[in-house]
Amino acid sequence: MDLETLVEQGTAINLVAASCMTCILYDHFITLDQEIARMWPARMSVAKILFLLNRYLVQAMLIFNCISASQPYLSPGVCVFYLRWLVVTLTVTGAIVQGILVLRVWALHRNNKLAKGITYFFYASGTATLVGLVITDYINEDVLINKALNSLPGCYATSVPSIIAGFWIVPLVVESVLFMLVISRAFVWWKNGSSAPRILSLLARDSTVYFTVFVLLRPCRTDRPHTLLYFLAFLHFWLQTSLYFNLVHRSCLAFLSSHQQQLGVSWDRICYSI
Length: 274
Hints:
Helices cover about 75% and strands about 0% of the residues. It is globular and about 65 Å long. It is mostly helical. Helix 1 (about 5-40) packs parallel to helix 7, helix 2 packs antiparallel against helix 7 (about 225-245) and helix 3 runs parallel beside helix 5 (about 165-190). About 30% of the residues are buried. This is DUF6533 domain-containing protein. It comes from Crucibulum laeve.
């Protein structure tokens, strides 16, 4: 790969990282009042824990990555840590976000043991596979830093890890299954001739947008993964945070509590466990 191409990549990575960090901080600032008013008083649950992890742990990891990507003249030791750390970020982000998606599917298919079983199997298998890939990356993959590019922002390895595609393929498979389970619920409503409630239509719509974006981006440029890493991780964080705030709105609680029998779904699990 020629020097000009590497410089272009370094600039692109830096710009994407800066844009994502700006959006993350802006989103946190404009939604903090909603978080304090709606989330802090809510009872402790798996959903709330996942939300807070996504809101703070994932956000802190992304900001750290963005700042690191903008720094030139990093030592080889720091670069080795940083490049390995990126796959840890992908794994943690994926596990937390997909956990939120699992709760969404569970709420929609509360009485469907088969759907719940499929959801748990793919989520557990996907998370375990990502953890295995991280361990493999740390044990079996060598990270050789290109010292000639030390003046560029971020870090550059002389080669791409052989297992890098796994970090895109595994989440894509898991999220495809979760998406199909969400859409299948909407299909049942359509097949029975009944219109889906607006709140659940919103949920299905957001799932469709979320899935479409990741289907288009995940397979792209696996030979240059760092360019898309920040954007993908940011979308994970932002879409799930925004969806959560949409669903815990008071109108959601009021609507679903009055239509619980019609929906066949527990309203508190829809509003607080998704």
